[in-house]
Amino acid sequence: MRIKIYFSDFIGGYILRLIDYGWDDGFKTEFEKLKEKDYMPARVVRQEKGCYHLQCEDEEITAEVSGKLRYSAKSISDFPAVGDWVAIKLINEGKSAIIYSVLPRKSKLTRKAPISGGRKVRDVNGMKMVIGGSTEEQVIAANIDILFFVMSLDNDFSLKRMERYLTVGWKSGAKPVIVLNKIDLCKDLNEKLSAIEKISGGVNIHCISAMKNQGVEKLHQYISNGKTIGLFGSSGVGKSTISNCLLGSDKLITGEVREKDSKGRHTTTWRELILLPEGGVLIDTPGMREFQVWLDEEELDTKFEDIKRLENQCKFNDCSHKKEPGCAIRKALEDGTLSRERYENYLKLKIEVGYLNYRINQRDKAQTKREVLLAKIRSNH
Ligand code: GDP
Ligand code: ZN
């Protein structure tokens, strides 16, 4: 028996079509170039431990990549990612599928991911932090049409961060849109807005309050049937609140769907690619959230340059800034040149970033073990 999706109430009775999921003439042309009549198109809605969850014409199915795709892949970016369109064949009496090809991507959100065993885990303030190692491109999400870069107009506001977002946006091939949220908390909107305009490079800017449902309707102009959108921004800026506004419900925000498993039992699972009620698709992957923290890591270096400089002045290279003699950090804290609050903010962000890196590392180890192994084997030849 095939896995069948039963959508929550408000999409009940809706007949799913690949067009609703973003299938278009461009993908169709690429698909036809494959010249294999048994292939079926499908879109990746979730990926875990080498297993892919795909949306086919009218059902969700699990799949693995073919041996040929695995061996011809030059890097992990050649493997399917969430949002990718793939060519599949059904196997096992239609219970599952094999992915033979990844159709060329319209856009891709990428980061440099560590690959080889060259990485070391170092203790940073009691947390494990991963350093070193070589990297290769990893696709976090594919075929996003519109990337909403969300920043809030309170303490989170940072021009530097928006500049980084826009760089990511342009590189991805998706259309970037700036969303400034929490307008209700902002007292100097004009100043912030003109500062953002200067760095925006002509990208549209929308000021909204997701909580008060003010201005959110302006985002609807970017969303239409078959268009894929992604929300990007630090934790706490209001991405979930915005998603809920767009979904018109808080039911599906986790992407939860009820599936029948192979024994016919109903189970609850989730997907990272969700249909919006008015048309359009929302992509929300853990990878995008991790990518965000990865950007935060870069920010850590620029925002706390003064503390980095102090750390370099400590007598011992591996100073923990606790008891060691000649500690520049403790001295600065004592004489007030470094505020305790600022130092604690720095430590907090550093620990968050370190902890997340550690978790990503552990998950990468489990999930992409085979891919990493193959990459290594290939690089040795
Ligand atoms: P996420 O981590 O980016 O998904 O952020 P959330 O959507 O969970 O929002 C974080 C917090 O900010 C929540 O307590 C929201 O209620 C609040 N929030 C979201 N949008 C607004 C807004 O427009 N104004 C204000 N004042 N708070 C907001
Ligand atoms: Zn020190």
The ligands found in this model are:
guanosine-5'-diphosphate, zinc ion
CATH fold label of the largest domain = Rossmann fold
Give the rounded overall mean pLDDT: 80
In spatial order, strands of the major sheet run: 13-12-11-14-18-17
Cα-based radius of gyration, to the nearest Å: 23 Å
Q: Regarding CATH, which class of the largest domain? A: Alpha Beta
How would you spell out the order of helices and strands?
EHEEEHEEEEEEEHEHEEHEEEEHHHHH
Distinct helical segment count: 10
Looking at CATH, the homologous superfamily of the largest domain is P-loop containing nucleotide triphosphate hydrolases
Low-confidence segments:
1-15, 250-256, 259-264
Tell me the β content.
25-35%
Task: Determine the N-to-C terminus distance.
Answer: 43 Å
List strands and helices in order, with pairings.
Layout: E1 5-6, H1 25-33, E2 40-48, E3 51-55, E4 60-65, H2 67-72, E5 85-91, E6 96-102, E7 108-114, E8 119-124, E9 127-132, E10 135-142, E11 146-152, H3 159-172, E12 175-181, H4 189-199, E13 205-207, E14 228-232, H5 239-247, E15 256-260, E16 266-270, E17 273-275, E18 281-283, H6 286-303, H7 305-313, H8 328-335, H9 340-367, H10 369-379
Parallel strand pairs: 4-6, 11-12, 11-14, 12-13, 14-18
Antiparallel strand pairs: 1-15, 2-3, 2-5, 3-4, 5-6, 7-10, 8-9, 15-16, 17-18
Helix pairs in contact: 6-9
The structure holds guanosine-5'-diphosphate (GDP) and zinc ion (ZN).
